[in-house]
C-alpha cells in the first residue's frame, strides 16, 4: 500500500484505496515522502503507525481475523485520506 499518493487535492491518498486479502496476510505500507507527514490509524483495536514524512516502508500489519478494516491518516482524515482492507478466510 502506498501512503502519500496523488488524491484529495494533493498527495493525500492511499494507493490502492482498498484491497481484499486472505486471513494471515501481512499488509505493508510504503510512504512516498510526498504530502507531508502521514500515519495509518485503524478504527478499533488494530495497531496504529507512527507519523512519518520521509519515504520508505515504515509500517506492516498482519490481519488474522476476517472482516473490514478501515483506516485513515489522522493529519489528513478531514480532507479524505482514508482506506480499507477486506480480509476473507
Global outline: globular
Helical fraction: under 10%
Tell me the number of structural domains: 1
CATH architecture label name: Sandwich
SS summary, helix count: 0
**Overall CATH class:** Mainly Beta
The average pLDDT is 97
How far apart the termini lie comes to: 21 Å
Strand order in space, largest sheet: 2-1-4-6
Number of E strands:
8
Instruction: Sketch the topology as an H/E string, one letter per element.
Output: EEEEEEEE
Task: Provide the gyration radius in Å.
Answer: 12 Å
- Tell me what portion of residues adopts beta-strand conformation: over 45%
In the CATH scheme, what's the topology name? Immunoglobulin-like
Largest sheet: 4 strands, mixed
CATH superfamily: Cupredoxins -  blue copper proteins
Low-confidence stretches: none
Quickly describe the structure.
0% of the residues lie in helices and 53% in strands. The protein is an all-beta fold and 89 residues long.
Write a structural description.
With 89 residues, the chain is mostly beta strands. The protein has a single domain (2-88), classed as Immunoglobulin-like, CATH 2.60.40.420. It is built from no helices and eight strands. The chain has strands spanning 2-7, 10-15, 18-22, 25-31, 41-42, 56-63, 67-72, 82-88. The strands form two sheets. It has a four-stranded mixed β-sheet with strand order 2-1-4-6, with no helix packed on it. It has a four-stranded mixed β-sheet with strand order 3-8-7-5, with no helix packed on it. Strand 1 and strand 2 form a beta hairpin. It starts with a strand and ends with a strand. The mean pLDDT is 97.
Amino acid at each position: 500500500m502506498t501512503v502519500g499518493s496523488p488524491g484529495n487535492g494533493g498527495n493525500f491518498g492511499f494507493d490502492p484505496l482498498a484491497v481484499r486479502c486472505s486471513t494471515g496476510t501481512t499488509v505493508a505500507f510504503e510512504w512516498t515522502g510526498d504530502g507531508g507527514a502521514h500515519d495509518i490509524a485503524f478504527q478499533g483495536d488494530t495497531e496504529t503507525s507512527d507519523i512519518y514524512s520521509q519515504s520508505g516502508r515504515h509500517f506492516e500489519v498482519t490481519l488474522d481475523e476476517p472482516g473490514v478494516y478501515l483506516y485513515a491518516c489522522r493529519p489528513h482524515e478531514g480532507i479524505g485520506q482514508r482506506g480499507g482492507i477486506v480480509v476473507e478466510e
